[in-house]
Design brief:
This protein has 9 helices and 7 strands. By secondary structure, the protein is of the alpha/beta class. The chain has a 7-stranded parallel β-sheet with strand order 3-2-1-4-5-6-7, with helices on both faces. The model has no long low-confidence stretch (mean pLDDT 92). The structure holds hexanoyl-coenzyme A (HXC). Hexanoyl-coenzyme A binds next to α4 and α7.
Length: 286
Amino acid sequence: MPMDRYEYVSDVWRDGIFDNKVVFCTGGAGSICSAQVRAMVALGANACIIGRNVEKTETMAKDIATARSGAKVIGIGAVDVRRPELLQAAADRCAKELGSIDFVIAGAAGNFLATMDQISPNALKSVIDIDVLGSYNTVKATLPYLVESAAKHRTDGKTRPANGTGGRIIFVSATLHYSGTALQSHVSVAKAGVDAMSVSVAIEQGPKGITSNVIAPGPIADTEGVARLSKKETRVKAYKAVPTGRYGSVKEIADATIYLFSDSGNYVNGETLVVDGGHWHTAGTS
Ligand code: HXC
């Protein structure tokens, strides 16, 4: 009897694995999230990206749509993730125009470099609101659609899910709070909250077929985060502190995203996938 190669080999990183699926992404015009969405679109998905800046979001949507002939990518600007009613309207529009929401990436974030004594209560609140409240609003607005998708994409873990995968969430976090990072207390607090939220969602919504995981990128080249956070003189030091001897690429975050959203990530739930070249393990040694 010929071996069913899919008994052991998942059908990842192939054209069409996300056919007829829709990914909804906040912060989708940013460097990391746009790469995550672009990879999903290249492999078959349609997408809706959300941002605050209208022009930047719409331009990025058009650009991502070039990843695959026939791809539909909607850019919805003027949406602040701190406003639940705007996110709800965006989620409803996405489902109406594209037919479903199968995957959610909660990627919108706020950041700047400042010591504790430089941060006003409103500055701290702004970052927590964007990261934590924004992630909460994103999940809340999309959850009914994700539950619907998850119900259609159940798997027994042995055979390939007939309709592919769906009902999955990725929160984009950071590693700053694992060891404590100067000038980043506000973001560290916020990202710790995001990590905790993901685990709760995983446990609470898991029985409905939802999976919830975190990707924690380390220093990734050509991103707004690295541009904002690293001054020229510290950049070389940070580079040398990465055990792999280089910054990561947005492609490497996209690869982690495909892993978690594909058939290969079926049984991964409530986890944090750190993609940082081993950087955070060096805390205190460099
Ligand atoms: C101290 C600052 C500040 C700074 C703003 N504030 N910048 N305080 N140092 N550099 C204060 C303001 O004075 C104000 O407080 C409060 O923050 C809110 O500022 P607003 O500009 O009114 O708010 P808002 O427009 O909502 O802007 C939010 C923001 C901003 C977080 C401050 O930076 C932003 O919108 N960022 C979004 C894009 C972004 O940051 N992307 C990078 C993500 S990278 P007062 O008291 O004066 O009212 C990332 C990677 C992390 O997250 C991991 C990397 C490894």
